[in-house]
Amino acid sequence: MVIVGAGPRATGLLERIGASAPELWSGAHELRVHLVDPYPPGPGRVWRHEQSPLLRMNSMAEDVTMFTDETSTVDGPVRPGPSLAEWAAQIAAPDAPRFTPYAEPADPEVLAELRTLGPADFPTRRAQSAYLDWVFRRALADLPPSVTVEWHRTTATSVTGPPDGPQAVRLAGRSDPLRADLVILTQGHLGSTPAPAHRVHADFARRHRRFHLPPAFSADADLSGLRPGEDVVLRGFGLAFVDLMVLLTEGRGGAYRTEPDGTLTYLPSGREPVLHVGSRRGVPYHAKTGYQLQGPRPPLPRYFGPEAVDALAAGDGPLDLRRDVWPLMAKEIGFGHYHELFHAHPERTAMPWPEFLAAYDRFGWYSARLAGLVATAVPDPADRLDFEALDRPLDGLVFDTPDAFQEHLRAYARKDLARREDPEHSADLGAFLALLSIYGQLPGLVASGRLTARSLADGLDGWWHGFFSFLASGPPGFRLRELDALSRAGVVRFLGADIRVGTDEATGTFTATSPTVPGHTVHATALIEAYLPGPNLDRTEDPLLRHLHRTGALAEEVVADGTHRHRSGRITVSLADGRLIDPGLGRPHPRRIALGAPTDSRAIAAFARPRTDAPAFRQNDTVARAVLRALDADPSEPYVPGPVDCARVGG
């Protein structure tokens, strides 16, 4: 078996193979697993150790695990393991039980971090790299002797072979291909060459000797061409921007001083450029919460689970995401929010929870009756959930001067940070958990084919993905403190919402405007697209996917109806088991599987929060068990998965 990509997704699959091997692998013959990845197995590219020590995760250490637990609905054995926080605790306490195979990280900085890492701390990516390295070594140790793993530190360039015979996987720098009965693709997030719109800006930059960076992985970006004091427009205000902000400030020698009142003051090195940032919303992502639930965990899903998805899929006519699906999603998020508010902060409610829930069950999210119920039961508007206000916080706001807007946005960020650090607002965490639950249900709905093409393009891949990230995938709170300090120091300048980026041939500069500050135009000599590249099979930098796509051996997800045609750039796979849909066969390929980010399962995360019945763990388990059954019976036979609940595995 060849697994292309050796990062967290491949590691999780190996862990599940090891878990089910005692039951399903007889050991009558050897199973040779070839891992192909130029980056280290376990961490892979994104989480490799070789990146700036300034870059951090946007999850607390206690919220990161690679292991199944009592909530996992898997057919294979549940094998609990430590979260990142629990794994780090053994290093801090010399007399603590050791998680085998025990080995301390070689990097003294990482070792020092792990010795002081608390459950609520946001680890560096290097600390996560060390954890993933250990998980990989544990997964290897748990495999039976007849299952061996070999790492090929290179890139897979092509795969060929008949559906009823061995596959040949060619590697860069090697003349002889690897022969495999099965090929599994787990490459994770991939880069792509610039889109046409970005090429226009790149051409402008070349002609005028300016700096331009298309969407890229921040840790890999070459920022050396940016000069001290240079004006830079950054389009995007999410996690990629935060990484770039860090690399261009602290990464260039700047530092922060904590004042007696707890605020930060930025001490510039003089090597920083000036960062002008804007986006569609014009505000930074909401900070991650810094507390735990104060009440019992909400029993999710309630309104948007497998039964609701099945009912939507079984209906007549096309589904519009915002009209037909979002109200159920919103009600689910509201349930998580109000469940925590009523249980943890009953003094701020005016009705017993059972009475509220009985009425809440009956009313639609956008109904006047639900609005009346919430107004009666939740007296303070600050405790009510208003998605439209959350989604577009600058709508209707206009500022006369750029400086007035700077002060407004600093105040906005401070207010958001205070709320995310105060457990009195733990209802936000209840909503967050409901968001995670919803995200896991959506692949089943997509696979039903009921969503309109426009809903998939603009609704799911557009608005919903952005809204989810805005609410649930923000930075640690201390990054907003740093942003505030950088703004006061004049190193970061806020542009506003709905920014428009253009070019000025006369001055050879990029321009940026926003209706938030009418009449104000920023001229800059550098432009950075501060967001990650999206999936795109036409422009992917991955040579294996490029080869499969150009030879017609995989299918891009294309959804078309009478009004729109949407090409998502994602690989079409069987939802249940991840098998590649082969257009030449007209069905799933029996010997090729793809899991994770580049597929139309829509980037099921490779690791997860504990006790969330993670969809990726369920899918890994299903694939691992089917692979073991097929190869143990007869490795020359094609992969035939067992029956599986598609909605459950997909979400």
- For this structure, what is the CATH homologous superfamily of the largest domain? FAD/NAD(P)-binding domain
Strand content: 15-25%
Kindly report the CATH topology of the largest domain: FAD/NAD(P)-binding domain
Low-confidence stretches: 640-651
Q: What share of the residues lie within helices?
A: 25-40%
Per CATH, which architecture of the largest domain? 3-Layer(bba) Sandwich
Distance between the termini: 26 Å
Whole-number count of domains: 3
User: Which radius of gyration do the C-alpha atoms yield?
Assistant: 25 Å
| Helix/strand/pairing category | alpha/beta
Large-scale geometry: globular
- Count every helix, treating DSSP H or I runs of 4 or more residues as helices: 18
Q: Strand order, main sheet: write it out.
A: 3-2-1-7-21-20
Outline the biggest β-sheet: 6 strands, mixed
Number of beta-strand segments: 21
CATH C-level class of the largest domain: Alpha Beta
> What does the average pLDDT come to?
94
Question: Top keywords for this entry?
Answer:
FAD/NAD(P)-binding domain, 21 strands, 651 residues, 6-stranded mixed β-sheet, 3 domains, single chain, alpha/beta, disordered C terminus, HpyO/CreE_NAD-binding
Structural features, described:
It comes from Streptomyces griseoluteus. With 651 residues, the chain is of the alpha/beta class. The chain folds into three domains: 2-192 and 535-632, FAD/NAD(P)-binding domain (3-Layer(bba) Sandwich), CATH 3.50.50; 196-285 and 475-529, 3-Layer(bba) Sandwich (FAD/NAD(P)-binding domain); 306-397 and 421-473, no CATH class. The chain is 37% helix and 16% strand. The strands form six sheets. A six-stranded mixed β-sheet has the order 3-2-1-7-21-20, with no helix packed on it. α1 (8-24) packs across α17 (615-633) and α7 (306-314) packs parallel to α13. The chain is globular and about 75 Å long.
